[in-house]
Amino acid sequence: MTLWHGFSFVLALGVCKAAAPLIAAVQDADPALAAARLRAGTGDAVAQFSVGSILYYGTKQTAEAVEWIKKAAVQGHAAAEFQMGQMHDFGFGVPQDDRQALEWYQRAAGHGSAAGQRSVGDFYQKGRAIPADAAAAVRWYQQAAEADDLRAQYQLGQAFFSGTGVARNYVTAYLWFTIAAGQTPLKDNRMQLVELANIAAARMTPEQLAEAQRRVAAWRSPAPRR
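^ that's the sequence the OP posted. Answer follows.
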């Protein structure tokens, strides 16, 4: 498994874990879904997203699930906006549409979704539905990385390591590779990130390495959004 594919797996795993309690609600107690439906019917965006997620991940009622998720997204619910982006990005439950995916990712990013910010960065990096712009991609990755998005931290490290979209800076590359390595659940990915950090370290002066290590030590993961 490559590092990139590994991160894709981690992302999918994270979505499934987030939905696990909702799926359990369907399996363990139908009244929980009924109660969520009642709240969703009043326009509660959180409940709408919950109902949509329960149906999307725990049943075959995909069309209805998409309707509920979109209702929440239209109200500015960041997680629902990101989910809409994911669905259009990969064609899950809706037609695959790069432009729609980007629009939803941009909305999610604007409402503080680190995953949405990183996804916008991906679209700029690859030139999907928008002209490729490496510098813009770096700016989006920076926002997402500072909000503790693992894949954005990796991408930002790569950008500073190669000097793509930003001036090459091995100190900053080392910082983001090391931070990403510290939270990567997959051993192979962690080892590759450590190797990249070591390569960056080998290209620094002792003073630069000391500065990079100080910056790593000073890093504090942001508090979870409420």
